[in-house]
Write a structure and sequence with these properties.
By secondary structure, the protein is an alpha+beta fold. The chain has six helices and nine strands; from the N terminus they run αββαβββααββαββα. Strands 2-1-6 form a three-stranded mixed beta sheet, covered by helices on one side.
């Protein structure tokens, strides 16, 4: 009987290539299916891997993010915001009430829950079709940390900070000569000083 002809090297190569392409095709189909299911599960919810500071937002809806920020704002109303200010001449610790004493409905500073919810829900939902499909899965393995938007009544906050920080400010001065016992001639040379003032607007922008 005739023995089967052994496969040539080129046939073995094409066979391996075919198996490899089949594996790749199956992998792509599986990834597409998993990504599509993942997107459907987290529709109208924040993707896993999204944080606001040390707080985890993954799986939260818009309402849940707003409720979370509302609880933080209530805590701010009760506890206020503490400041530790230092300059070359003194230091001071003071606390600011986030609600104006003359208007209990007007908050001087508050965290923006709606703004945070919009930002959190937009993470990895934009871009081209393949980005929308694959990037949500990447968020699970690559942490995304968001900054919480802050609403500030800048006029009220500026006045409060100026009142609390003015005793720490050191106004600039020119060099001068101070006579102690005129006309004996004893005098003191006071050197020039650049002074030190707090940049209120920069402080507010960092809140």
């Amino acid at each position: 009987p005739l023995l089967p002809e052994p496969p040539t090297r080129s046939r073995r190569f094409f066979k391996l290539v075919g198996v490899f392409l089949l594996i790749v095709a199956v992998f792509i189909v599986v990834v597409f299916a998993v990504s599509a299911a993942y997107i459907a599960i987290y529709k109208n919810k924040v993707y896993p891997g999204v944080y606001a500071g040390s707080y985890y937002l993954g799986g939260s809806s818009t309402g849940e993010v707003n409720k979370f920020i509302e609880d933080l704002n209530n805590r701010l109303v009760k506890e206020g915001i503490s400041f530790d200010a230092r300059s070359t001449i003194a230091q001071s610790n003071f606390k600011i009430n986030v609600v104006s004493a003359g208007d209990s409905t007007g908050e001087i500073i508050a965290l923006d829950g709606e703004g945070l919810a919009k930002i959190a829900l937009s993470v990895n939902r934009g871009g081209k079709w393949y980005e929308k499909l694959f990037y949500p899965l990447m968020t699970r393995f690559k942490k995304v940390n968001l900054s919480v938007p802050v609403q500030v009544n800048e006029l009220a906050m500026t006045e409060i900070l100026q009142d609390n920080l003015k005793k720490l400010s050191d106004d600039p001065r020119d060099a001068n000569v101070l006579f102690h016992t005129w006309p004996s001639g004893q005098m003191e040379i006071i050197p020039e000083s650049a002074g030190q003032k707090f940049e209120i607007h920069q402080i507010i922008s960092q809140l």
